[in-house]
């Protein structure tokens, strides 16, 4: 059976060199050839290690966007499976339908009961159609707020996992109140008296991300992004040319490093070398450690302190000048 592989453009020279090394190893393993390629293999392995370091230590904002969209990247349910136990998924918004692009339910992390909310993409075309490519409808955001209200009632911390290109922009979604559903979530999340930790694990696109993105502590994975608009959307508006997306990604200040400097987020979660998809277990371990550290710190605060802290956090974002 053929194995699905996906290579990003900037990774191609590394992959080609790795394939060359494997060919030489196969040749070296053939005793009939009587050729020792050990020295050449060693030199090439040193070169490929150097190339990897050069590429992954100097990723551009656009390359990080590409990493955030990698089809092999772990999604919400992957992290729930690796970081948590006793997950029980809850369904439906009690008004219209159950949105498969946004999942939620009870779980435990290191024995602590929590409510999980997160966008969910698919692993292949069929599942992506089922999950609507992680773009939630208004019923998804209404399901999310219903579950958060339940968590607030039972005094359970809320862990949100953001990974969406944006809320679904279709006619039906607009007719059912997409913008008002997101706005309602923003208001209600600001009022909850339980800890809320938001983790951007892949794409953090526009209002679709903000709909579950108000928290006491906001973290972004090293190769994720968080932005008011996609680079392609920004390029189409400003330059009338989607090919300008790499320039837009740079100017939008959407990577973890930029967001931390602007005090929009609180922490960058490191990823394994080459991205979370290279070692999902290590990525999950890093995420779990960050979640537990910050969850335990937030649990020491009173409900009123949490609300006041959250209010001040968002009031401090952005700069303005009074004339």
Protein model, in words:
The protein contains 14 helices and 8 strands. The chain starts with 11 loop residues before the first helix and ends in an 8-residue tail after the last helix. It has 323 residues and is of the alpha/beta class. The mean pLDDT is 90. Strands 1, 2, 3, 4, 5, 6, 7 and 8 form an 8-stranded mixed sheet that branches. It has 2 domains: 9-58; 65-315, 2-enoyl-CoA Hydratase, Chain A, domain 1, CATH 3.90.226.10.
Residues in helix, %: 40-55%
Architecture (CATH level 2) name of the largest domain:
Alpha-Beta Complex
Number of folding domains? 2
Strand element count: 8
The chain-level mean pLDDT equals 90
CATH-assigned homologous superfamily of the largest domain: 2-enoyl-CoA Hydratase, Chain A, domain 1
Entry keywords:
14 helices, 2 domains, single chain, alpha/beta, 2-enoyl-CoA Hydratase, Chain A, domain 1, 323 residues, eight-stranded mixed beta sheet
In a nutshell, what does this entry contain?
This protein has 323 residues and is an alpha/beta fold. The protein folds into two domains: 9-58; 65-315, 2-enoyl-CoA Hydratase, Chain A, domain 1 (Alpha-Beta Complex), CATH 3.90.226.10. The chain is built from 14 helices and eight strands.
């Amino acid at each position: 059976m053929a194995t699905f592989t996906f290579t990003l453009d900037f990774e191609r020279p590394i992959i080609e060199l790795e394939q060359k090394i494997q060919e030489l190893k196969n040749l070296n393993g053939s005793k009939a050839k009587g050729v020792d390629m050990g020295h050449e293999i060693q030199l090439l392995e040193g070169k490929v290690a150097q190339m990897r370091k050069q590429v992954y230590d100097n990723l551009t904002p656009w390359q990080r966007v590409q990493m955030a969209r990698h089809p092999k990247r772990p999604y919400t349910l992957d992290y729930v499976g690796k970081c948590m136990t006793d997950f029980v998924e809850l369904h439906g918004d009690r008004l219209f339908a159950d949105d498969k692009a946004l999942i939620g339910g009870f779980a435990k992390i290191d024995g602590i009961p929590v409510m999980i909310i997160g966008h969910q993409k698919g692993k292949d075309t069929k599942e992506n159609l089922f999950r609507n490519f992680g773009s939630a409808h208004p019923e998804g955001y209404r399901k999310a707020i219903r579950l958060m209200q339940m968590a607030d009632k039972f005094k359970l911390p809320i862990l949100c996992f953001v990974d969406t290109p944006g809320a679904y922009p279709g006619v039906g979604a607009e007719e059912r109140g997409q913008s008002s559903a997101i706005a309602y979530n923003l208001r209600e999340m600001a009022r909850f008296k339980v800890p809320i930790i938001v983790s951007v694990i892949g794409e953090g696109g526009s209002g679709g991300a903000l709909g579950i993105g108000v928290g006491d502590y906001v973290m972004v994975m090293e190769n994720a992004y968080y932005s008011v608009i996609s680079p392609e959307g920004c390029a189409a508006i400003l330059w009338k040319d989607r090919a300008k997306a790499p320039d837009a990604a740079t100017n939008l200040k959407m990577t973890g490093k930029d967001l931390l400097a602007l005090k929009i987020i609180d922490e960058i979660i490191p990823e394994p070398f080459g991205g979370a998809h290279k070692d999902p277990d290590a990525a999950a371990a890093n995420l779990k450690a960050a979640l537990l550290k910050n969850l335990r710190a937030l649990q020491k605060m009173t409900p009123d302190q949490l609300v006041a802290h959250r209010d001040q956090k968002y009031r401090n974002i952005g700069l303005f000048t009074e004339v």
